[in-house]
């Protein structure tokens, strides 16, 4: 329930509404408008490649070597974004913050990015779509990316002064996600209404479980 409702203080209760899809309480780090269905990729690690493995020391002997290393990182990142574009991936959903070079090439190749998503949000998206996070540097750049989620829409959403990402997913299960936008004059009222609604949903869930048995 926590990931499927957003409390918005400062508006009358009558402004509350139900929206299809999920409202992610993060602004786009990069937003590239697109029409129709698109493919989304879940990632849990930085897409900017590291020069060494964890625990391995990397020694730079000269300025030329340092610049060559930066060029390698840039070229590798661009190659990855090209690889995503060629696989029709138009949205990256990341649990970690991505580097500036990733955001730059995402914008260049028409890939929207939402970063710093919580583990609960990532788990919910995985459950809805049946897709697991992608390991970018464990795969060949020539291999087709199959672990993608179908997104029916992807757009910014302004809730009073907070910018969010509103994303619709094609569900692989019977559950069709919707998000409750719960409005109220102050946070305390919203919290009371949210608690009451969550209690009502819990009661209905228990009731239907009893009926099924």
Structural account:
The protein has helices at 63-86, 100-108, 119-129, 187-212, and strands at 5-9, 17-20, 22-24, 38-43, 89-94, 112-114, 149-159, 162-169, 178-184. It is an alpha/beta fold and 213 residues long. Helix 1 links the parallel strand 4 (38-43) and strand 5 (89-94). Helix 1 packs across helix 2 (100-108). It starts with a strand and ends with a helix. The model has no long low-confidence stretch (mean pLDDT 85). This is BBS10 protein. It comes from Leptocoma aspasia.
Q: Find the CATH topology of the largest domain.
A: GroEL
Q: How is the largest sheet built, in terms of strand order?
A: 3-8-7-4-5-6
SS content category: alpha/beta
Beta-strand percentage range: 15-25%
**DSSP strand tally:** 9
Rg calc: 21 Å
What is the CATH H-level superfamily of the largest domain?
Answer: GroEL
CATH class of the largest domain: Alpha Beta
Estimate the global geometry from the Cα principal axes. Answer: elongated
Spell the H/E element sequence. Answer: EEEEHEHEHEEEH
> Segments where pLDDT lies below 50 for 5+ residues?
none
Number of helices: 4
Largest sheet: 6 strands, mixed
Please identify, by name, the CATH architecture of the largest domain.
Answer: 3-Layer(bba) Sandwich
Helix percent reads 25-40%
- Counted up, domains total 2
What distance lies between the first and last C-alpha atoms, to the nearest angstrom?
Answer: 24 Å
Average pLDDT, all residues: 85
Oligomeric grouping of the chains: single chain
